[in-house]
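User: Let's play a game. I give you a shape written as tokens, and you guess the letters that built it. Ready? Here's round one.
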């Protein structure tokens, strides 16, 4: 049975707190695991969340500030210690290659696993698998930063009433799906397009075209909301979003489930992020993330 869910490993921004670890997010997408922005302490948070190194297939780093990348050293060494039997691909801004190299080889260890380095230096597709396309878009932050988007190919939804009307049943249903027609009946006459799911991961950034492109039409958007709206000037100065800005992106992009995260340590009331997001007009499903939370990707429409 396929599983699509977000496992939240950490939700703090630059400074962790007693209750919030540095960033870390695992997306389970059917049989694959994609680890986003492993900050310091990610390896221990994985243990607490029941996530093994064997669950990882890709690592996606948005940028090389410490709260988004210092956990790379431990995670990569754990992958090798556990002798993960499959290759793992790492995506990160090409401009930060020297930081990735330092983290990958921060200390001595025995390399047993192939890690394919696939740095990002432009908008567009990064990888295509049978289950999704991974895309990147440049964001607006003091250091080069990219957001990531997963797009599932569109499929077909069979319509029982139309199948019955054409007398198609049993093994013939599979046959018309494979062959595209059956006895003069085209597949389009008994089915409709089933839109593929979309997931986006947006971290440190100001509002920009890249944010909007990543969020457009997403079933789930995981997005930073470091500041509350009253501190918008600070957000712009430091290259971040407020809760209201993040919610406005989700509202305008038709996002079904908005996950707010990456909170400044200056705030003690997480409910205020939800209040401001709702005040911005977002009326979809909304989660203010906390550490070790599991959030299912919404079911297809």
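Assistant: Ready! My guess for every position:
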């Amino acid at each position: 049975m396929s599983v699509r869910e977000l496992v939240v490993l950490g939700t703090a921004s630059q400074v962790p707190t007693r209750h919030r670890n540095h960033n870390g997010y695992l997306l389970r997408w059917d049989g694959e695991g994609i680890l986003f922005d492993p900050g310091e302490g990610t390896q221990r948070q994985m243990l607490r969340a029941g996530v093994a190194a064997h669950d990882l297939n890709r690592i996606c780093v948005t940028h090389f500030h410490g709260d988004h990348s210092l956990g790379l050293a431990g995670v990569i060494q754990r992958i090798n210690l556990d002798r993960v039997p499959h290759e793992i691909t790492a995506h990160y801004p090409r401009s930060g290659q020297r930081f990735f190299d330092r983290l990958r080889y921060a200390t001595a260890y025995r390399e047993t696993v192939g890690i394919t380095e696939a740095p990002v230096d432009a908008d567009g597709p990064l990888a295509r698998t049978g289950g999704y396309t991974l895309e990147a878009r440049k964001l607006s932050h003091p250091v080069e930063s990219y957001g990531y988007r997963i797009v599932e190919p569109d499929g077909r939804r069979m319509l029982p009433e139309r199948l019955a009307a054409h007398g198609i049943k049993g093994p013939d249903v599979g046959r018309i799906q494979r062959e595209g027609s059956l006895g003069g009946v085209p597949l389009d006459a008994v089915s409709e397009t089933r839109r593929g799911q979309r997931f986006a991961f947006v971290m440190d950034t100001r509002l920009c075209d890249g944010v909007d492109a990543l969020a457009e039409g997403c079933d789930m958007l995981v997005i930073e909301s470091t500041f509350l709206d009253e501190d918008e000037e600070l957000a712009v100065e430091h290259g971040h979003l407020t809760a209201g800005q993040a919610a406005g992106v989700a509202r305008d992009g038709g996002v079904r489930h908005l996950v707010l995260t990456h909170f400044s340590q200056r705030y003690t009331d997480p409910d205020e992020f939800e209040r401001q997001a709702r005040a911005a007009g977002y009326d979809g499903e909304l989660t203010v993330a906390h550490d070790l939370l599991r959030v299912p990707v919404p079911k297809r429409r």
